[in-house]
Structure formats: C-alpha cells, structure tokens
Amino acid sequence: MTEQRLNGFPMGAKAVLVAIGLAMLAGCATRPSPDVLNPVHQPVHLNASLHSDEAAPSRVNVLAATNRSADTARGGFGSTWADNLTYEQYAFSVPPNRKDTAITYPTSRPDPERQFAVIRRKQLAKDAFVQEVLRSTQSDGTVGIFVHGYNYSYQEALFRTAQIAADANIPGSPILFSWPSAAAVAGYVADRDAALSSRSDLDSLVTSLSASGKVKRIILFGHSMGGFLVMETVRQLKLQHRDDVIGKLAVILAAPDIDVDVFRSQLKDIGRMPIPISLLVSKDDRALVASSFIAGERGRVGRLDIDDPVIREAALKERLRVIDITSIQASDGLGHDRYASLAKFGAQLASFESGRRSSVGDVGAYVFDAAGAAVASPFRLAGRVVGSQ
C-alpha cells in the first residue's frame, strides 16, 4: 500500500499533529459529570412558548443498555466492566431552534430553551426493557440501536443518542448500547479491549430483541470504534449460525475505525448479508488519521476513497453501500462526528432501506450531497444521492 497524504503532509507526520490536537481538545473541553443524569423538575415555563411565537422544547425517549459498572456514589456508570447488563429508560427535554449538533448540558438551574435535560429516569429489569422496546417499535417493525465510539462516557453517549433522535424525528425510543469506554484520549488501546469484551453483551441484546416476531428489522448503527464492535458482534452471530438474527439486521457503520484488512477478514467470515452493510466515510476524517497512526499507519475503513476505482469495484463485489458524507458539516473540528449531523437529513436514524429486499442496484459507491433536496431510493434521506459509476 502506498503512503497516503493529507493536506500535503505525509500521513504519519499529519497524524502526530492531529493526535496532539485531539489531546488539546480533550484538555480544553468541559465534559459532563454523571450529575447530568439526574432528572430535573420540568419548569412551569417549559410549555409557555406554546402560547408565543417561540418554539417549545420537545421531548424524546431513549432506552439504554450498558455493560459498564455502576457508579453508585454519583449515580452514573464508569469505565470498568460489569458482569451483567443494566437497562434504563430516559425522557429528555430537547431545546428548540438548535442550529448544529452541539449539546449544551444542564446546569444547576436548567434552561430548557438552551439545554438538553433528563426529565425522567427509570431502571428496568430485562423483561420490562424488552417490553418497552416492543411498545416503541416502529409501525414497520423497525428498532434502532446506537453503539458509540472511542472516548465516550455513558452520559455523553446518552445525550448524543437523544440529539440524534430529536433531529431525525425518530418514532418510538432509540436504544443506546454503551460499552465501557475509558472516556479518555489516552485510553485508545483500553477502549479497543473493552469493545472486544462487549461482543457477547451486544450479541445478547440483539438476540433478545430479534426473538419477537414484532421486530422485523434491527438497525445496528455503530460509530467509529463502535463500528468495530458491531462488526465483531455480527461475525460472532454468524459463527453461532444465528442466521435468523442476522437476517433482521441492517448494519450501518459511521466513520468506522476498523483496519481495512481486519474488515476484509470480518466480511469473509460474515458473508453476504440479506440487507447490505452501509459505510459512511470521509477522506478528511482527521480523527481516523490519528487512529491510523496509532495502528502503524494502517488504513481505516472510515477513510475509504470512493473515487478510487478499486474501492468502487470492491463495494459491488462485497455487496456494500459506501457513502461519502464529506459534504455534511462536522462540529468537532476533526470531521469525525458528521454522523450526528446526518440525522437532520432523514426521517429515520440513517435508515437506508427502501422497505423491500435490496437489489443489485442498491449497492456500490455513492456521494451524499447535503445541498440537495430530492429523496433517492434506497436512501431515506432529504438529500440527493448520486451514484458513482
């Protein structure tokens, strides 16, 4: 493989600069404590704007399953691994008139016009959790599971899920699966180990939901290292001969932090899925440049170049949907969180199925044009998808 270059720098040199930038960002940013998980009293004026010209805060519900250990002192979840999954149910107040995907966390005096806030929180037994999922299943039998990436705390992943749900206007309750990330820039290797250790727990969650005949399709959406966890879980299901579960899965990987050769090996074990895997990629994802550097300058799937004829041919051969989302604005300064902005372009959480079995024409390499206005099958996105032939 020839050495890749980015903005005129050799990949390795650029990665060092990006890694330093990542550390600086982490050091400057104020990260939310578990206190933000405590429900706040809904202010009387929360609905006051219903009687004025201002938009009112909206509400979204989120279900969460985590294999993190409980932080009993602060009421949250930490970065160590638990023996069992914990299940929770949340209701959020979502501020109106948001211009981007930035999340403003609640303070001691929450402002519903500006801040996201938990207004209800309840821990559930497994059976009760499954019943809540079934009650919130979309009319076509779809449920969605979001798997976060590296360097996420439980509360950050939970609020991000609420933001995506609000922007995508998702019916029902999306599900967060939160694995025990160290939530630290220096924790990359530890996070990879934690992701690998979480395969069986994500497997258990997916299997328990797919057991119901009411669930026809499970959107398994993995971001960054969460995409690696998703692929490892699907591979595990395949090795267990759980084709009944795999047949219901719609796998979407956003900026997947997966070594290209590892991904090829995963695909070999998994084989062709009934619903093709979708990859959301961007050549200028600088977080993945840093990841590549850490891995010895090995290419990452999230930076595939769809202009490369080899990539287009591979997408068709492997029956993949590779969608370049570079046109979508990122808010993290690194081009790694475009998936969060993608939500506002669709009526569902990146649901790319057209409601029918995929045909040969549904796979290949595509460019998503954020400035477009038409909806093109098989993508349920309020934007133009242009096929790269």
Structure description:
With 389 residues, the protein is of the alpha/beta class. 30% of the residues lie in helices and 23% in strands. The protein contains eleven helices and 13 strands. Helix 4 runs parallel beside helix 6 (225-239) and helix 6 (225-239) runs parallel beside helix 8 (260-270).
Helix-strand blueprint:
Elements: E1 5-6, E2 9-10, H1 11-28, E3 58-71, E4 76-94, E5 117-124, H2 126-135, E6 142-147, H3 154-168, E7 175-178, H4 188-197, H5 199-210, E8 217-223, H6 225-239, H7 243-246, E9 249-254, H8 260-270, E10 277-281, H9 286-294, H10 309-317, E11 320-324, H11 338-342, E12 364-369, E13 384-387
Parallel strand pairs: 3-7, 6-7, 6-8, 8-9, 9-10, 10-11, 11-12
Antiparallel strand pairs: 1-2, 3-4, 4-5, 12-13
Helix content: 25-40%
Taken in chain order, the helices and strands follow as EEHEEEHEHEHHEHHEHEHHEHEE
Number of beta-strand segments: 13
Number of helices: 11
Organism: Rhizobium leguminosarum
Protein name: Alpha/beta fold hydrolase
Pfam family, one: DUF900
